[in-house]
Hints:
Low-confidence stretches of chain B: none
Number of helices of chain A: 2
Shape of chain A: flat
Radius of gyration of chain B: 28 Å
Mean pLDDT of chain A: 91
Strand content of chain B: 15-25%
Order of helices and strands of chain A: EHH
Helix content of chain A: 40-55%
Largest interface: A-B, 27 and 39 residues
Oligomer: heterodimer
Amino acid sequence: MTTDFRSVYAAVLHQWMGFDDAKSILKGDFQTWPLFD
Amino acid sequence: MIKKILLGLLVIIVLLVIFIATRPATFHLERSTTIAAPPERVFEQVNDFHSWPGWSPWEKLDPRMKKEFAGSSSGTGSVYSWSGNDKVGEGRMTIERSERPSQVVIKLEFIKPWIATNTTTFTFAPVSEGTKVTWAMDGNNNFMAKAMPFFQRWAAAQSEAALNNGKDNHPERILVVVELTGGNDGLNTVVPFADDAYYRSRPSLGIRKQQVLKLDDHFGLHPSCTGLHRLFKDGRLAIVHGCGYRQPNLSHFTSMEYWHTAEPHGSDKYGWLGRFADARNPVPVEDYIVNIAARQSLAVASARHAPIVFKDPRKFGRVGDDAQQKVFETFGREYPTANASLQFVNSLSRTATAGAARVRTACREYQTLMDYGSDNDVTLDLKKVAALIAAKMPSRLYYLNMGGFDAHAAQSNQQQLLLMYLSDALSGFMDDMKRMGRADDVVVMTFTEFGRRVAENASGGTDHGTATPMFVLGDRVKGGSTARRPASAIWMTGT
Lengths: 37, 495
């Protein structure tokens, strides 16, 4: 395993849904990639 | 003494009347903000009253507010009436002029707690950051309006909140999550064809290098994934390799629960999407979550939102024996009662009944010429999602699952068929979104509870493994692979 799946969740919540506080939903801070334009 | 008091009061009243009477006869309020979306997208959110629950703070002041739509489905002539608690009162909005994508003019009539008629104008101007949205309200100041200027300030504050809500929330955006149940074999989905260790571990199951649909000089998709390959080539598919969690659990049930709750080795009675819905909308938004399934997934379990859960839209509704049907019919329509509990049950019941009717109508009326591949579970479910999006449901989270991926034996044919169904359905769905003009608003994410072991087993299958790739697709997705170059196939699964 190299990627915690919650990193993808965090990217979707923050970058796509525009939700700034993904940390509170996922109960942790996860590194994300720029998945969206 | 009493005469002096009365005289004093009279003087105060006269001065107050003079003050109120000399206030301006008309008023104009205005607020602006910038939203990171093109004018067409923002315009759509305002031009269709059905979209208002997704962003309007008025909707949140009374979640049990009665709403009725009349006239045109959107644009000029569409009417939206509401009636609710003391905070929202009663009134009606009518779109009087709609100029796509620059302006929407609304006649706003308040009936309760006071009568007033104003004009609300939304204007949308393109700017480098997206769209500058300006809300303005104009009206006449009658005596009551002059006496209660706080109402105008309240209306302006609510509108400012609405504009900022839209700014922060991307209200037009939709997330579709597709669960691949059973543990899909990631190694034969995104094949590391340049890795000798892969072929050594899978002498019969390994996908030949000549067969894969190449993504780059190291990875290729399973040959049945032609639709996904097209999306990748178009830059609309992102592949995130090696997804999992520390100390993986190889039980389907337990691992899936971890993915549903986003809490490996912990527990939560609510799912990550349900928690997100609650955090985004502290006052629940009707029909915000849709789960296409016979049973609700833990992923969408929410403290405040009641997801729409259905598999067959024709049967979506309340069923029961004769006595139960009578109760459903009674509570499915307006049921006058002074009992607060019964009022609440009646409100919930009417909401559920209305939601079921909307779903049935949307699915019945939906038609598409897009090619989703053959009719199978995931195809039909994605068409239901497309139908609800086409019907402009206010739903923002869609969740569905596709089963059959647990291939301990005879994996080749089984996975080939499933991946073909999935790939064709996803590419057809994205084409359908483009046809509807919603391709910029919709993203699909796929996941499975774990991957499979690198080595094939003696039955022509693979056993439970750990990590697996996730797909994120859509027109606004930055396509490509997020992987570093793996040293070996083992890197991808973690086994």
